């Protein structure tokens, strides 16, 4: 299947293009916007977070991303726009339930209003679950399976640092 996107608009005072899925051309409905621009993360992440009314965001990543310094421009962009960021770095490859449960507990304690997944598929998958369950009455076990997740989720921004998982554009977590 082919997926088609169309350029939709520009944010005021921003120099990046938003690409919005055209619902008449694609059956994908689990994401709203894709931004593809070199350097967008450090130049525009704060603006994007603000446009989603995020004031306190949880950045879900792993220790390797932090150690590499790749997270610093993202955090600087958020800070420049007045978005408070809290970083969760305990994600591991193919995270077991306990990692997800700990991340969820941490997110709830931090009283976040948005989530950013920054890294590979595991970080982005954990971010999806946190965005879904932070304000939900459902447990992780209750959302296993297709069509079991109910309600709304927190605003979610996905920033892939690897190629191949596709986690940033899928509605599932593994």
Notes on the protein architecture:
This protein has 174 residues and is of the alpha/beta class. 32% of the residues lie in helices and 18% in strands. Helix 5 (121-133) links the parallel strand 6 and strand 7 (156-160). It starts with a strand and ends in a 14-residue tail after the last strand.
Q: How large is the radius of gyration?
A: 16 Å
Q: Helix/strand/pairing class, anyone?
A: alpha/beta
Mean pLDDT: 77
**Secondary structure: number of strands:** 7
**Multimeric organization:** single chain
Give the strand content. 15-25%
Please outline the major beta sheet: 4 strands, parallel
Please give the alpha-carbon distance between the first and last residues: 22 Å
One letter per element, helices H and strands E, the order comes to EEEHEHHEHEHE
Helical fraction equals 25-40%
Shape: globular
The order of strands across the largest sheet is: 5-4-6-7
Low-confidence stretches: 1-30
Question: Treating each run of at least 4 consecutive H or I residues as one helix, how many helices?
Answer: 5
List the helices and strands and how they pair.
Elements lengths: L4 E5 L8 E4 L11 E2 L5 H12 L4 E5 L2 H6 L2 H10 L3 E5 L8 H14 L3 E6 L1 H13 L22 E5 L14
Parallel strand pairs: 4-5, 4-6, 6-7
Antiparallel strand pairs: 1-2, 2-3
Helix pairs in contact: 1-3, 4-5
């Amino acid at each position: 299947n082919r997926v088609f996107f169309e350029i939709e608009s520009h944010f005021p005072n921003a120099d990046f293009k938003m690409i919005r899925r055209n619902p008449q051309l694609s059956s994908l409905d689990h994401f709203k916007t894709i931004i593809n621009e070199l350097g967008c993360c450090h130049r525009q992440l704060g603006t994007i977070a603000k446009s989603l009314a995020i004031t306190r965001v949880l950045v879900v990543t792993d220790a390797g991303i932090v150690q590499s310094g790749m997270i610093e421009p993202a955090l600087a962009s958020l800070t420049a726009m007045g978005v408070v960021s809290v970083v969760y770095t305990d994600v591991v490859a193919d995270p077991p339930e306990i990692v997800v449960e700990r991340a969820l507990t941490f997110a709830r304690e931090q009283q976040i209003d948005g989530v950013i997944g920054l890294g590979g598929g595991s970080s982005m998958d954990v971010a999806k679950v946190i965005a879904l369950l932070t304000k939900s009455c459902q447990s992780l076990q209750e959302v296993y399976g297709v069509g079991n997740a109910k309600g709304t989720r927190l605003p979610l921004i996905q920033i892939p640092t690897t190629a191949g998982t596709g986690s940033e554009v899928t509605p599932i977590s593994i």
